[in-house]
Amino acid sequence: MLKKIVFLLFVSCFACFNTVSAAESGGMPQLNPEFWISQIFWLIITFGILFIILTKVILPKISDNLETRKSQILENIETADKQKEESQKKIDEYEKIILDSKLKAKSYFNEAREKILDDINKKRAALEKDLDEEISEVEKELSDLKQKSGEKINKIAAETSAELIKELIGEEVNSSSIAAIVEDQSKINRERKDV
Amino acid sequence: MASNPMYQFNVYRIGPEIKLGAVDISFTNASLFMVISSLAILIIFNLGAKKKTLIPDKLQLLSELSYSFVAKMISDTAGSKAKPYFSFIFSLFMFVLFCNMFGMIPYAFTVTSHIIVTFVLAAFIFIGVTIIGFMKHGLGYLKLFVPSGVPMVLLPLIVVIEIISYLSRPISLSVRLFANMMAGHTMMKVFGGFVISLGIVGGWLPLSFSVALTGLEILVAFLQAYVFAILTCIYLNDALNLHH
User: Fold this and answer.
1) Helix-strand-coil percent breakdown of chain B, rounded to 5?
2) What is the pLDDT of residues B143-168, one digit of tens each?
3) Which sign does the torsion angle of CA B139, B141, B142, B148 carry?
4) Any idea where the domains of chain B sit in the sequence?
5) CA A124/CA A116 separation, integer angstroms
6) Confidence of residue B1 (pLDDT cuts 50, 70, 90)
7) Which residues in chain A are closer than 8 Å to B4, comparing Cβ atoms?
């Protein structure tokens, strides 16, 4: 295998030498001045036309295009920034509105509560006043009744005791003295009760 | 003799002989490939510049990328003063690039493999740059040959060397491109000849070399066009911004 590669290299070197010497005998066509003028002429023509068209037509278009793209992108970025700002402003406004409405709702609530409490208090006060009046009326009636009942009881007691005495003794007793005795007795009773 | 590796560089007449006075300006295969390259450039870039969409299509992207590539190259090497020469350098770069690339097509002729073509381009650049330098700085442009910070003893020697290096610019620029293209194409031809002469048994090795060389040559074709353009920018930079 190695032998074969060495052999191949040897052969290729030999072939290379052969072709290179052949080239030397042919010379370099580049140094043959036969077509130099023609080459210069056509170079000037083609390169000149290329240069003129590129300069006048194509390159301005490309640079224009690049410029417009640049400015457009900048513009878009600017618009995006502006919109961002606007949306931030809107968000702030929205939050403010929400805060305001919350405060308003709270104040409405408080007002309503106060009103209701006031109402309730008023009604309660009126009711209590009514109640107090009625109670005091009833108490007065009661105390009246008590006093009257005491007198009535005394009267009844005097009448009954006068009749009892009449039955027992068969004799008319002075009703006023009986009434005084009953009065005394009931006073004593009441005092005993109080004590 | 078609197996001669230099045969591909022969220039021959296409069509009738055209004479302007005593000089022969016949249309040759070299002229044909100059016309083809220029037309290809014009067609591709015209199509690329035609549509003005915000999001570019393929050709538009290609032309815009080339535009910004060359613009960046110029502004990097020669600064903002070189902007008026943009279209010349762009045309030069594209012309050399397309001529080199068209040379990579089998049986095609490589325009830039002829010293006369590259020399005319380089000489034009040299003369143009020199004129620009003298127009911008007057006789002060001669300061280019006198670097600052050099001892007085060495100055005569340095000036002579600077002048020689300045004058050899067109030669170095043209020979660099011409020699690269010629050497690459000759080498490909030689290896191609080996494939035939070694036959089906031993031809695989030079064939693989040939394939690899094709890739290399495409790289060289681009690189040499780039070098040609960037050296032009550097010479222009010397003429526009004297920094010696």
Assistant:
1) 75, 0, 20
2) 888 888 888 888 889 999 999 999 99
3) positive
4) 7-240
5) 12
6) very low
7) 19, 22-23, 26
Read off the pLDDT of each residue in A164-168 and give the average, rounded to a whole number: 82
Closest partner CB to A30 (pick from B9, B50, B120): B9
pLDDT digits (tens, 9 = 90+) for B60-114: 899 999 999 999 999 999 888 889 999 999 999 999 999 999 999 988 999 999 9
Decide: B111 and B213 in contact? Cβ < 8 Å. Answer: no
CA A192 to chain centre: 77
Residue in the block written with tokens 């007793």: A173
Q: Which residues contact B41 (CB under 8 A, 6 or more apart)?
A: A50, A54, B94, B95, B98
Q: For chain B, say whether A21 makes contact (Cβ under 8 Å).
A: no
- Burial class from Cβ neighbours inside 10 Å (0-12, 13-18, 19+) for residue A22 reads middle
Strands of chain B, DSSP E: 19-20, 23-24
- The ipTM of this complex is 0.90
CA–CA distances in Å: residue B169 to residues B38, B86, B101, B222: 26, 21, 25, 21
Cα–Cα distance for residue pair B88/B127, rounded to 1 Å = 14
Burial B6-44 (b: 16+ CB within 10 A, else e): bebbbbebeeeeeeeeeebbbbbbbbbbbbbbbeebbeb
Of B112, B88, B118, the C-alpha closest to B98 is: B112
pTM for this predicted structure: 0.71
Q: Which of A5, A9, A12 to mutate to test the interface with B (most CBs of B within 10 A)?
A: A12
Of B48, B67, B178, the CB nearest to A63: B67
Question: Is A63 in Cβ contact with B91 (below 8 Å)?
Answer: no
The per-residue pLDDT for range B28-68, each reduced to its tens digit, is: 999 999 999 999 999 999 998 887 777 888 888 999 999 99
Residues A60-78 have pLDDT tens digits of 999 998 998 899 999 999 9
For B:85-144, CB contacts with A below 8 A are 86-88, 90-91, 94-95, 111, 113-117, 120-121
Cβ of B6 within 8 Å of Cβ of A29? The answer is: yes
Weakest-pLDDT range from A100-104, B22-26, B153-157: B22-26
| Nearest residue of chain A to residue B18 (CA atoms) | A38
- Rounded distance between C-alpha atoms, residue B62 and residue B60, angstroms: 5
